[in-house]
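Handout, section 4.2: multi-component inputs.
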Amino acid sequence: MGRWPEFVQIKEVGPRDGLQNEKNRVATADKISWINMLSDSGVPEIEYSSFVHPKWVPQLSDAHEVGKKIKRNPNVRYSALVPNRKGLELALEAGIDGASVFMSASETHNKKNINKSIGETYPILGEVIKDAKRAGKLVTGYVSTVFDCPYEGRIRPDDVIRVCDQLMEDGVDDLSLGDTIGTAVPSQVEALLEELLKRYPKDKLIMHFHDTRGMAIANIMTSMEYGISRFDSSIGGLGGCPYAPGASGNVATNDVLYLLNGLGIKTGIEEKKIQEAALFIQNKLGKSLPSKSLAYAVAQG
Amino acid sequence: MGRWPEFVQIKEVGPRDGLQNEKNRVATADKISWINMLSDSGVPEIEYSSFVHPKWVPQLSDAHEVGKKIKRNPNVRYSALVPNRKGLELALEAGIDGASVFMSASETHNKKNINKSIGETYPILGEVIKDAKRAGKLVTGYVSTVFDCPYEGRIRPDDVIRVCDQLMEDGVDDLSLGDTIGTAVPSQVEALLEELLKRYPKDKLIMHFHDTRGMAIANIMTSMEYGISRFDSSIGGLGGCPYAPGASGNVATNDVLYLLNGLGIKTGIEEKKIQEAALFIQNKLGKSLPSKSLAYAVAQG
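Output:
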């Protein structure tokens, strides 16, 4: 047991990464009630929305209103995804403790996702990072497709390191490494972490697993064996895979909590409240979420 | 990578443990076609049915006919579940290479499941084991609820060892250790394997995980770190949890293969054929099976 962290810090990304991959829209008022439930669960950080242009993510076009109206719990860090200076301005107006910038380790994925080459993306994110830091906000750098890319296949750790190095140089506080299409197995996690941990302290690294092939919990175990203690997850496994509609997306907060509680690792989160919040949004979306421990709880009644 | 086995032996239990937990019946002819597909996939062992009285498992009341009519691949070991001498006789008539006997590490679960105390169960299984060995068959001893019991809660490794010792003394060739309700997390797997591996060689131990809370793949990873290289799994995650209808059951062969292939561990199984067989039975049952990698493949089209 000594080799696992004593405390794991979970960032709830359901309101952002989850909802942006759901076809069905959730009413703004419901989102606000739901985020308030999450705020009350003990989770230390919530990514509450995205300030990407609504044309790209219509599900989150109410980011500003949501940011204005949610009840802020002083023990929760509220963050949002911001693509550029304009997005950051809106986010600052709506209220954020942290800004998340994003790009891909894969040239092709970056191009398809944000319509720019990796080289063209750096200065844009660099500006956002500078402005956000000047405004006193924490900045997380999301790096997508750190294991595999839907267009390029296997991504080499060197390509990931190049992007991470630049983001760190530009001033991000931490890095969230995304298994965007949920293909990784533990040996890939090991290979990447071996390299990254030579360069960055482990508390700068957040692992962001998708559970598209059911590997996420095993990948979290492996990450914890490397001392990683920060993970992104989505309540109920909300969200999906944009490359395979119908497949599952982010690892479920519920399943991560089941694992961590079972291992005796503290999170500060009340499992029951997470379950209630998962049932709430499952109801609003009118579909069963993919979390197996949630499905079990529902089946149990 | 050195610490994981080079080869993993999978026993496909979908036709038995999977189907016995599905409400919908599958026609005998379909079962036979499906088992023939499985026989052709490279899987080294198939538990093709159960010779428990049809009153208890009506879904498998055609065990005898199935055993008679499936096409035997000489590279596959065909086994069946047998509860007693009568069941063994029928199984031998239908044709088996191996017999699986079963009992629980939990007194209450054993009583509820087979209507006898643990002490009363030993002599019955002892007879079956003796007869099966005399007939030249391999015998596997299933031990259920080795981690947690739906009635008694946490089960101590000592209680598991007591049952394992007796079954080994009675002559089983190997032991399959069941996380019957799919509650275990890796620390529980470690605690049990630490004790069992002091007593039995690792190739005598088979781990039988259910994925009811989504922990099975992580538990398999942990087992492999202890040198375990034999696992039971069910195609597509077929089957369910008798204690929570609607929840998932056996770990999916598809997900296990995704993991093992990703880690570079050999199984001799063709993933594509397993996928085809999973889609076949999914169709016959008219419901989506819980395997995430299967759902991904289906979504991909």
